[in-house]
């Protein structure tokens, strides 16, 4: 396999890189190549008519110019790379849609010159979240129904922060997921889609990787991406279960403490920043209590909680009441200020 940079959670089979997480990507720089072709591979959602709303959405950039954008509606797509006069350039293949819906396979053919991975950036951030972090329906409007064709993690608060800090980012996020309950429309606890259950796996997806098992079956190698900061934004879906019931809210708080211990164990050197409240503020207090309880129990002071500002009607909504790009930008500005202050304090300035 050609030497490339792979960002985000993924798995490799038979020289095909299967991108799992939102915003995951394959990137490289080449020179002295006479030709080159990107082959995108779909999983079962690409050809099953009943899975049309779940198909992987992708973007391909050549020298930072978008050359291909679409969803995997065939088993394979072949995208030639424009070599240019000097036969060199930079390529990025990005999975815009989320892990739980589908996988995107990437293989490279015909690059017969010099190929090298893009260098790692100095900062690395992992974002752990739900549909907000996935960019759920962010390219749509409130009258539309969600499909992956209008999902884009690159337009979220997380992407804004990563771009502003010139950081590599990994998005461990799944729509509808929570800490004690996934989204539930009837108030009955939904234990099928909990982030703590799948955080240590490559991902969670109903569709298997062709010829192999679902990514759910494979452990994630945390040495592949070692963040200096982890941002957790979880609780919006839990509220559909907890409501205003204090006993259930305390259950959320206590399980949040347990999850923080898992995140710390897997990221021993990272600063952990917990955020909540873009789509509802009811569980903010309990999330803050979870952080304080964790700090008191462990003595770990590199964990903090900060509320997001509740989205404003005048900033618009996308399907199912989710935040617009404008709301995400404002949330990103708030998170960026928090991270910058933490960095200044670390440096003693």
Quick recap:
This protein has 349 residues and is an alpha+beta fold. Helices cover 22% and strands 26% of the residues.
How does this structure look, described?
- There is one protein chain.
- By secondary structure, this protein is α+β, with helices and mostly antiparallel strands.
- It has two domains: 5-116, Jelly Rolls (Sandwich), CATH 2.60.120.260; 123-346, 3-Layer(aba) Sandwich (Rossmann fold).
- The chain has helices at residues 131-134, 157-164, 195-198, 239-242, 246-266, 284-298, 325-346; strands at 5-7, 10-13, 16-19, 25-31, 37-42, 57-62, 65-71, 76-80, 88-95, 104-109, 114-116, 123-129, 167-173, 229-233, 271-276, 303-307.
- The strands form three sheets. Strands 1, 4, 6, 7, 9 and 11 form a six-stranded antiparallel β-sheet that branches.
- It is globular and about 65 Å long.
Write the layout of secondary structure elements.
Layout: E1 5-7, E2 10-13, E3 16-19, E4 25-31, E5 37-42, E6 57-62, E7 65-71, E8 76-80, E9 88-95, E10 104-109, E11 114-116, E12 123-129, H1 131-134, H2 157-164, E13 167-173, H3 195-198, E14 229-233, H4 239-242, H5 246-266, E15 271-276, H6 284-298, E16 303-307, H7 325-346
Parallel strand pairs: 12-13, 12-14, 14-15, 15-16
Antiparallel strand pairs: 1-4, 2-3, 3-10, 4-9, 4-11, 5-8, 5-10, 6-7, 6-9
Helix pairs in contact: 2-7, 5-6
Count of extended strands? 16
- Which CATH top level class of the largest domain fits? Alpha Beta
Our count of domains comes out at 2
* Fourth CATH level, the homologous superfamily of the largest domain: SGNH hydrolase
Rounded mean pLDDT score: 96
Structural class: alpha+beta
State the share of residues found in helices, binned by percent. 10-25%
Contiguous helical run count: 7
Query: Major sheet: size, sense and barrel closure?
Result: 6 strands, antiparallel
